[in-house]
């Protein structure tokens, strides 16, 4: 996998256990490098010692300019990223990272912000809560976790200016304190925007409840950390045509569109290779994509004028790409 775009060199000045199985890293710029400002909801690409590049949300207050903070769950089903952070990155280590990118920004015209986090999905929402609290905006934050000892940043939230806006929900706690998604959405003021991040099942449940309650898609904001499993049993080959040259590139049944493009010498920016970060988003001029990403909204997928070649394929025999 390639290095992060616009690489910055940083040093890990603090590694701290935030909860059972979750550690945070405080990153500062090495001499000759500067940390650009970031907005709430932003993430960075991090090049890890094992060669992988992974995306992690920035969870410190957006107004801070001297450090970036990320937090990572040790995931037993990890493809190698979280294990590398926990086992191979120590205080004092240097890492290459990208400049911040934000595919999960706060809406500027929302009357109310409803932040729903599942587990480690609290990270971008923490930065949002810091930003909204400092601006005096109307919001509430709900954090659902398996148990108190698996809940990161409890002390930070308790001491924060947004503690009164925050609600914790523990799976092993009393039934009365568990999150009722439908009721929470129903109580939200008119014009509220919803933001959700966390495990796939949690996010699917929240978004389904929002759609069932009639919330328009433009008021439902989400960020996935990983892609859902995809069945490749019936995958077939297809062709990619480069609009600028007419060149046709075949994609084998066992090959991704991104891999075929890279093998043909066509440089496509990439990062997660799972269809969650949007880095490789490519315009489609003709043909019908088989969308398998979790980055585009349902409306954007239905338009069929763009796709993510890292994971998506083609329903038609050929896709003509705006390259």
TrEMBL record:
It holds the Pfam family Fer2. PROSITE patterns: 2FE2S_FER_1 (PS00197), 2FE2S_FER_2 (PS51085), FAD_FR (PS51384). Its cofactor is FMN. Keywords: 2Fe-2S, Flavoprotein, FMN, Iron, Iron-sulfur, Metal-binding, Oxidoreductase. GO terms for molecular function: 2 iron, 2 sulfur cluster binding; metal ion binding; oxidoreductase activity. Residues 5-107 form the FAD-binding FR-type domain. Residues 238-323 form the 2Fe-2S ferredoxin-type domain. InterPro entries: 2Fe-2S_ferredoxin-like_sf, 2Fe-2S_ferredoxin-type, 2Fe2S_fd_BS, Beta-grasp_dom_sf, DmmA-like_N, FAD-bd_FR_type, FNR_nucleotide-bd, MRET. SUPFAM superfamilies: 2Fe-2S ferredoxin-like, Ferredoxin reductase-like, C-terminal NADP-linked domain, Riboflavin synthase domain-like. It comes from the Bacteria. This is Oxidoreductase.
């Amino acid at each position: 996998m390639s290095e992060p775009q616009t690489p910055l060199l940083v040093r890990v000045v603090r590694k701290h256990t935030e909860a059972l199985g979750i550690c945070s890293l405080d990153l500062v710029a090495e001499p000759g490098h500067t940390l650009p400002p970031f907005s709430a909801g932003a993430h960075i690409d991090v090049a890890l010692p094992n060669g992988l590049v992974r995306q992690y949300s920035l969870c410190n207050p957006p107004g801070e300019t001297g450090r970036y903070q990320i937090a990572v769950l040790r995931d037993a089903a990890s493809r190698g990223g979280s294990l590398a952070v926990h086992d191979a990155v120590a205080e004092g280590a240097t890492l290459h990272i990208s400049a911040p990118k934000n595919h999960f920004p706060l809406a500027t015209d929302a009357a109310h912000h409803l932040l729903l986090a599942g587990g480690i999905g609290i990270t971008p929402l923490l930065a949002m809560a810091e930003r909204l609290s400092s601006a005096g905006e109307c919001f509430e934050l709900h954090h659902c976790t398996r148990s108190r000892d698996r809940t990161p940043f409890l002390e930070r939230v308790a001491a924060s200016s947004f503690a009164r806006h925050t609600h914790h929900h523990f799976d092993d706690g009393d039934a009365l304190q568990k999150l009722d998604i439908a009721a929470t959405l129903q109580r939200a003021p008119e014009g509220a925007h919803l933001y959700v991040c966390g495990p796939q099942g949690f996010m699917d449940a929240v978004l389904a409840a929002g759609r069932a309650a009639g919330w328009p898609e433009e008021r439902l904001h989400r960020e996935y950390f990983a892609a859902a499993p995809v069945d490749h049993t019936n995958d077939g080959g297809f062709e990619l045509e480069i609009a600028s040259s007419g060149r046709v590139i075949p994609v084998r049944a066992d090959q991704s569109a991104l891999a075929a493009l890279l093998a043909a010498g066509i440089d496509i920016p990439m990062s997660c290779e799972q269809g969650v970060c949007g880095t490789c988003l490519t315009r489609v001029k003709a043909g019908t994509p088989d969308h398998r990403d979790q980055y585009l909204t349902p409306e954007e997928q239905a338009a069929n004028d763009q796709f993510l070649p890292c994971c998506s394929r083609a329903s038609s025999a050929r896709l003509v790409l705006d390259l």
